[in-house]
Amino acid sequence: MKQQICILGSTGSIGTQALDVISQHSDRLEVYALTANRHWQLLAEQARKFQPAAVVIADEQYYPMLSEALTDQPDIKVYAGPQALDEIVEAAPIDMVLTAMVGFAGLSPTVHAIKAGKKICLANKETLVVAGELICQLAGEHRVPILPVDSEHSAIFQSIVGEGDNEIEKILLTCSGGPFRNCTEEELEQVTAADALRHPTWDMGAKITIDSATLMNKGFEVIEAKWLFGVPVEKIEVLIHPQSIVHSAVQFIDGSVKAQLGVPDMRLPIQYAFTYPDRLPLQGDRLDLFAHPLEFFKPDVKKFRCLALAFEAMRQGGNMPCILNAANEVANEAFRQDRCKFSDIARIIEQTMQRTTFIAHPTSLDDYIATDREARSIAMEDVKN
């Protein structure tokens, strides 16, 4: 039986690479549902090629165009709206859900997929950043595996497979350093969104590329690692590794370090999540260690304040990481739209963290939704001022 896959965010960078993996292993993997936010034309193209049972466009204004584009495909059901995302992941034939949506919007469908007992291939890091405690609790209750798709967390996972209960002394989370690693604070005052969108290693969407430039993306991954691997933030260390060859590593209590290395190709962790514990052939470049020096540096948390704020949010716990994420989404978008400076991003986030209502023990999805709404409002007010 082929594994039936639902891809949340099929038109993005992760989604398109996931479809390439599926096409290379069509004897084992099959698309059941594809979803997108606004890119209805690409979604229609993907639907024609992969013939899913259903497609969902989250932004309902694009439903007429998508529906019209697929009128000659009567076997493909077309749906629209956030509620349709929550409902499609619950479809009985689905075996696994790849959560490749960007931002807070990925939380609700992930919760619904877990409650429906679907294996989660997690590429939406904001899900664990915002509501890690809730997600882990639900995954335990419904006995749902969560397999990481981020290259760093996949590397950590691959490093601990087979280690049983051996104690982790430290997680070494690598980071390219982004395009501004060697910039001074004065130079950072002058950078533009166009500058920030030129990532030196990875080809990603605009939002995550800006997060990588501020190192907030790495801060999110610290929080994600805490929940995925049950390790306190004090045992997670970030290393700047410009070559992006060592994707991350684990140090055990005997001092031994295990790492996963490879070329920067997101199809590798995507395929590993889809087919674990099996490793299947994958077309693509192979790592040539003779061609790559391996360098490691400590991050400058004074210059890249967002990373420090992420550690602080995790230490405070409660709904603070949710506040961090909401403020970052607002500030990130404002910077991309030239409504604030690069250096304003950390300031907006920090002030939002100080002003938003703190809940030490959120108990439901509604708590996180309310926190997200309040934090966004405060951050937007800061941007306007």
- Which structural class best describes the helix and strand composition? alpha/beta
Series of secondary-structure elements, N-terminal to C-terminal: EHEHEHEHEHEHEHEHHHHEEEHHHHH
Radius of gyration of CA atoms, rounded to a whole number: 20 Å
Strands of the largest sheet, in order across it?
4-3-2-1-5-6-7
Q: Name the average pLDDT.
A: 95
Quaternary organization: single chain
Helix content: 40-55%
Largest sheet, in brief, is: 7 strands, parallel
What is the number of strand segments? 11
Helix segment tally: 16
Low-confidence residue ranges: none
Distance between the termini: 57 Å
Shape: globular
Strand proportion: 15-25%
Task: Explain how this protein is built.
This protein is 45% helix and 15% strand. It has 385 residues and is α/β, with parallel strands linked by helices. It has a seven-stranded parallel sheet, with helices on both faces. Strand 5, helix 5 (107-115) and strand 6 form a beta-alpha-beta unit. Helix 6 (126-141) runs parallel beside helix 11 and helix 11 packs parallel to helix 13. The protein is globular, with a radius of gyration of 20 Å.
